[in-house]
Amino acid sequence: MPISSSQLQVIQREAARLLRPVHPKPQGYDLFERMGRPRYVCAPMVDASELAFRMLCRQYGTELCYTPMLHRSSSRPPLSPYLQVL
């Protein structure tokens, strides 16, 4: 028994509704509002974004501090001596 086009549209709408996230991730201005509209932001800097520095920034009025990006090389095990020669 074939499905009519109206039935297909109902099925597609219902599938789209079920696949939509319940709480969509805030973006743009909505994200800015949810974070409390920070005015002073400390972005990560090379070799100067450790926790102590971020805590110092927060103490002096920074409202939002980013953590530094982790590098892939810092999380992998060291290469074996054989592979280092290659």
Description:
By secondary structure, this protein is mainly alpha-helical. It is 45% helix and 5% strand. It has 5 helices and 2 strands, in the order ααβαβαα. The protein has helices at 5-19, 29-34, 51-59, 72-75, 81-85, and strands at residues 41-42, 64-65. A two-stranded parallel ribbon has the order 1-2. Strand 1 (41-42), helix 3 and strand 2 form a beta-alpha-beta unit. The chain is elongated, with a radius of gyration of 25 Å. It starts with a helix and ends with a helix. 1% of the residues are buried. The mean pLDDT is 80.
How is the secondary structure organized here?
Layout: H1 5-19, H2 29-34, E1 41-42, H3 51-59, E2 64-65, H4 72-75, H5 81-85
Parallel strand pairs: 1-2
List keywords for this structure.
single chain, 86 residues, mainly alpha, two-stranded parallel sheet, 5 helices, elongated
| Amount of beta strand | under 5%
Shape call: elongated
Q: Please report the total strand number as a whole number.
A: 2
Instruction: Compute the average pLDDT.
Output: 80
SSE series: HHEHEHH
Counting helices, strands and paired strands, the structural category is: mainly alpha
- Main sheet strand line-up: 1-2
Brief overview:
With 86 residues, this protein is mainly α.
